[in-house]
């Protein structure tokens, strides 16, 4: 197999969050599907060009695809049902109903919006501790126990996407100079809000942090 010529449709996680926030703020239902045996479908050898048709009815359906997992939303349930039927005829899909679990994130609805729970800060904490695997010391074990206590006390904490109608797009970026006490490397960070909902963020150690922090947040917005 030539791995340079293989491709699977993978949506960015931040795009998934944008879609979810837009759906919540417009009061649209979110659905999820799974494509059966997606890897067995034939290769596409032709060049395909797509042109958006002129809208006349005002119906909207937005679809996010991550390999064989799909979530979608829209303002017309009849058209959404028709889309499900069409996809099932073409690919044989499993209808998983309303959105509840996608890409390791668990979702729960409430009258005020939707909560997303992905394990909190666990990936960040694990990444930080993994830097010292070559020569672990007692302070690292102390931090690990502290991390476990923190996770136990914040097990119900997650991101909340409110149904407030505000859709103002706001971005922040920041950088420091050699502030990491362990590596003396600089770091750049950014975060993006859609209304009052956090939809994208990143932090990375690197040189020339001020310019890279600005370029990263501009790339996220565009």
Automatic annotation (TrEMBL):
InterPro entries: DNA/RNA_pol_sf, RVT_2
Gene behind this protein: LOC107809925
Alphabetized PANTHER family for the sequence: CYSTEINE-RICH RLK (RECEPTOR-LIKE PROTEIN KINASE) 8, GAG-POL-RELATED RETROTRANSPOSON
Organismal lineage: Eukaryota, Viridiplantae, Streptophyta, Embryophyta, Tracheophyta
Occurrences of domain Reverse transcriptase Ty1/copia-type (ranges): 2-59, 61-115
Protein name, UniProt field: Uncharacterized mitochondrial protein AtMg00810-like
């Amino acid at each position: 197999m030539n791995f340079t010529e293989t491709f699977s449709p993978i949506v960015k996680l931040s795009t998934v969050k944008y879609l979810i926030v837009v759906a919540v703020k417009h009061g649209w239902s979110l659905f999820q599907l799974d494509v059966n045996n997606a890897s067995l479908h034939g290769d596409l050898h032709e060049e395909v060009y797509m042109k958006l048709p002129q809208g006349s009815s005002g119906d909207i359906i937005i679809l996010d695809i991550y390999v064989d997992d799909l979530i979608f939303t829209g303002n017309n349930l009849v058209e959404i049902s028709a889309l499900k039927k069409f996809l099932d005829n073409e690919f044989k899909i499993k209808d998983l109903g309303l959105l509840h679990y996608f890409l390791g994130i668990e979702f729960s609805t409430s009258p005020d919006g939707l909560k997303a729970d992905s394990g909190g800060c666990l990936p960040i904490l694990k990444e930080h501790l993994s830097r010292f695997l070559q020569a672990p010391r007692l302070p690292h074990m102390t931090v690990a126990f502290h991390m476990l206590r923190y996770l136990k006390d914040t097990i119900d904490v997650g991101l909340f996407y409110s149904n407030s109608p505000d859709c103002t797009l706001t971005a922040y970026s920041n950088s420091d100079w050699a502030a990491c006490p362990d590596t003396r490397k600089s770091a750049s960070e950014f975060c993006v809000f859609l209304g009052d909902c956090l939809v994208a963020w990143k932090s990375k150690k690197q040189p020339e942090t001020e310019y890279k922090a600005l370029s990263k947040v501009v790339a996220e917005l565009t």
